[in-house]
């Protein structure tokens, strides 16, 4: 999938994908045939009938961060750690689509919509367990610490998703809670990807800490950019139609910023979103204008920029080899400039 | 919950439960409040409103096996390994109830029926991740190998559950496939519980192997006993009404043994179960009689005995301290004499 015009996938991502995909495929091939088929579909390697898919798979941004993270600490790769982050990402998307009732993922039907909920629950479970298995059979010296980091990350991820589900039933979500949700749901796995390689190769603890802090900020900047796309497009890049987060009444960051702005536009937005039943297109366009009028868009854009700047400072403090530094910054900019 | 008259919970199980429960509670308390509440309900510690439940929790058979497994290899406990097996067991029950649509578990409403599917999916995910986290922060010398064993076990568990789901759509399940399903779904975690303690304390590999083989046989004997209860009772012990596996047309071991027996009774049973719609009570009683007539009951009883004998031989070959040997045999007999 291509990004916005002028935004191309960084070469380090393409290179990492080529390194990690064989490890991922070998891991998935250990699963029983039924579960392996659901996983292969979800990962974009196969169509619903099990035939190889021509385009094939996501961009492997998290594995690229993990590969660079190992190189930041040592002249070594730790591909199992990189593959494990992608497996956890895939697990969380599989289960999130079921929980959120999202029937579409990356321009295709979601796995649960094709294979049914039971098979999709099971495939998610399998990918989560496989991530631990893979990491623990690696011969990287810090593999047990890396596996523990990944497990703690999954706990944070789940806490974020639990908050997100809770938000659906509430109309008093604060911006602080919303940031906490995004930190768990998006920030934690990107922070983990940015540090797990350094942990796996037994790199210095302060280095892993700086990389994790970098990733947490990048993750939030990414979520803010994604939330902006969830209102104002672009469907070609994200697979989400314009206005989709307003259509689903999602408590995304710009929307909550607008709702809690104390402005008249914010109050009118709340009244619009409180109407029962599906919201007509004209109302959605009006709601988007109100998010902007209430300052939600400007806040999210500024906040994304602050987060990216903070990420850059953490990275500078890490004192990395220049090539690794440049590649990590490249991915951070890519993530926050296109949305997915 | 009491067992059959005359079958009491072995003292080693009660003792292990007292050792492991605080570790489990501390682990669950790390989860976000919403997920922790679902987990506490599912584990029997709280009611649907979050109030402490008077009876509280399962019997902790798997943790007891894990505690004994560590003692078989060393004069050491490895309570995190024991707690991790219980967390994986709880995870699998949580998700299985959703997949199977079972609204009742241990005489109470299943967690998904109380809190909704999304919260129950998430709580299962959390318990699975927590098992790895707990194991990896243990200071037992073999903790990384133990965590890997647990991850591989989850893969086997999932393969068994995937087969079970597939069986629902098939009418040509062989007895061999059915045994393979039971080995995955039930045998693998009991085999893991019986060996994970020895692995975690870095015990000799052949000892862990013998303990695992013991557990695999015990697991199958347990499943056979459970399947007999699924047809002929007893509801007080299992929470399942008499004839429940016939009512749900489950492809359990005695039923598949009868269906594939090549007898006239087996063919009549197949015809009965193929009828559309819910089966009336009289038909269910007739079906149970046909399972017996086709030799399904006798086969399952004999097979359970063979498995228990084989388990005993594996245990004898392990050369354990006599007290540990006796306690393990006690649990094996308990598991196969009451059903749960």
TrEMBL record, chains A, B:
Keywords: Magnesium, Metal-binding, Transferase. Pfam families: polyprenyl_synt. PROSITE patterns: POLYPRENYL_SYNTHASE_1 (PS00723), POLYPRENYL_SYNTHASE_2 (PS00444). InterPro entries: Isoprenoid_synthase_dom_sf, Polyprenyl_synt, Polyprenyl_synt_CS. One of its GO terms (biological process) is isoprenoid biosynthetic process. GO terms for molecular function: metal ion binding; prenyltransferase activity. Transmembrane segments: none annotated. Signal peptide: none annotated. Belongs to the FPP/GGPP synthase family. This is Geranylgeranyl diphosphate synthase, type I. It comes from Nonomuraea pusilla.
């Amino acid at each position: 999938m291509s990004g916005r015009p002028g935004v191309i996938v960084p070469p380090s991502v393409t290179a990492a994908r080529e390194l990690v995909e064989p490890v991922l495929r070998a891991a998935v091939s250990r699963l029983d045939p039924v579960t392996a088929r659901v996983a292969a579909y979800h990962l974009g390697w196969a169509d619903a009938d099990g035939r190889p898919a021509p385009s094939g798979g996501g961009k492997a941004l998290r594995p690229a961060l993990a590969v660079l993270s190992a190189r930041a600490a040592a002249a070594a790769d730790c591909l199992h750690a990189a593959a494990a982050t992608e497996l956890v990402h895939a697990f969380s998307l599989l289960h999130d689509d079921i929980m959120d009732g999202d029937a579409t993922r990356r321009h295709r039907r979601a796995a649960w919509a094709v294979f049914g909920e039971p098979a999709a629950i099971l495939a998610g479970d399998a990918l989560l367990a496989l991530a631990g298995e893979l990491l623990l059979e690696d011969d990287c010296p810090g593999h047990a610490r890396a596996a523990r980091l990944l497990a703690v990350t999954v706990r944070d991820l789940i806490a974020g998703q639990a908050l997100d589900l809770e938000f659906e039933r509430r109309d008093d979500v604060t911006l602080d809670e919303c940031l906490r949700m995004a930190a768990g749901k998006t920030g934690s796995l990107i922070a983990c990807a940015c540090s797990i390689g350094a942990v796996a190769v037994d790199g210095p603890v302060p280095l892993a800490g700086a990389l994790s802090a970098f990733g947490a900020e990048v993750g939030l900047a990414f979520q803010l950019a994604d939330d902006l796309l969830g209102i104002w497009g672009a469907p070609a890049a994200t697979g989400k139609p314009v206005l989709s987060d307003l259509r689903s009444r999602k408590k995304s960051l710009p929307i909550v910023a607008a709702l809690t702005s104390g402005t008249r536009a914010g109050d009118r937005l709340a009244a619009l979103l409180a109407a029962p039943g599906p919201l007509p297109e004209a109302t959605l366009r009006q709601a988007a204008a109100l998010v902007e009028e209430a300052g939600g868009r400007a806040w999210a854009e500024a906040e994304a920029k602050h987060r990216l700047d903070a990420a850059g400072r953490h990275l500078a403090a890490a004192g990395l080899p220049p090539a690794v530094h440049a590649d990590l910054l490249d991915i951070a900019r890519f993530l926050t400039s296109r949305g997915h």
